[in-house]
């Protein structure tokens, strides 16, 4: 490969192809992944880690799970109720400042009134609020920007939706057919072939 190209790889638990061995799955330990994810960005490689719960990452990578998550610039939470994920998300969202006004009245021989004012912090979203979040909503966190609650995108409204298998079964990508075409590439005089 010549020139600067950006490579993208995804790791998750749901195979998108017929044969699971053809899919890069996070649930087989990727050796030294905590070091790899910290350096690949400088090599123009992106990694998308897809999980149902952060506890899955911790189960596999133990102490390195926090390093892996720390090297991800963005997080998209689509919903869920797993305790570890919800607790960490609630803590990451942070707190907002609220003003509290308390009034008091004392009744005795003379009436007296009091007004107490204080500022306090409240979680932006409590764990309970996250677990019952509307299924049409998501939380997106990007490094350097405050997290925000957003509507999930309706993929059926995308201009290229008609190219997906969901729209038409004939659009399915046949990995076996694609792999068997490998001897049919045209090579010109400027092509360099390197075997590893």
From TrEMBL:
Principal location: membrane
Compartments reported by the entry: Cell membrane
All residue ranges annotated as the TraD/TraG TraM recognition site domain in the record: 27-134
Cross-referenced CDD domains: TrwB_TraG_TraD_VirD4 (cd01127)
SUPFAM superfamilies linked to this entry: P-loop containing nucleoside triphosphate hydrolases
Pfam families documented for this protein: TraG-D_C
Keyword Transmembrane helix included in the entry's annotation: yes
Cellular component, GO annotation: plasma membrane
Domain of life: Bacteria
InterPro entries: P-loop_NTPase (IPR027417), T4SS-coupling_protein (IPR051539), TraG-D_C (IPR032689)
Lipid bilayer topology: Multi-pass membrane protein
Cited PANTHER family: CONJUGATIVE TRANSFER: DNA TRANSPORT
Tagged with keyword rRNA processing: no
Keywords noted in UniProt: Cell membrane, Membrane, Transmembrane, Transmembrane helix
Name used for this protein in its record: TraM recognition domain-containing protein
């Amino acid at each position: 490969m010549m020139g600067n190209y950006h490579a993208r790889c995804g790791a998750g638990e749901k195979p998108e192809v017929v044969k699971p061995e053809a899919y890069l799955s996070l649930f087989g330990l990727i050796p030294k992944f905590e070091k790899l994810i910290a350096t690949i960005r400088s090599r123009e490689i992106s990694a998308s880690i897809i999980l149902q719960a952060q506890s899955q990452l911790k189960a596999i990578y133990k102490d390195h799970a926090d390093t892996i998550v720390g090297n991800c610039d963005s997080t998209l939470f689509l919903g869920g109720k797993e305790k570890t994920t919800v607790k960490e998300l609630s803590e990451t969202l942070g707190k907002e400042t609220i003003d509290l006004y308390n009034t008091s009245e004392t009744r005795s021989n003379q009436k007296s009134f009091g007004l107490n004012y204080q500022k306090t912090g409240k979680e932006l979203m409590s764990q309970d609020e996250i677990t019952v979040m509307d299924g049409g909503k998501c939380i997106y966190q990007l490094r350097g920007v405050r997290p925000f609650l957003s509507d999930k995108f309706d993929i059926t409204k995308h201009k290229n939706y008609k190219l997906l298998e969901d729209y038409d079964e004939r659009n399915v990508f046949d990995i076996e057919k694609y792999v068997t075409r490998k001897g049919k590439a045209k090579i010109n005089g400027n092509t360099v072939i390197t075997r590893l």
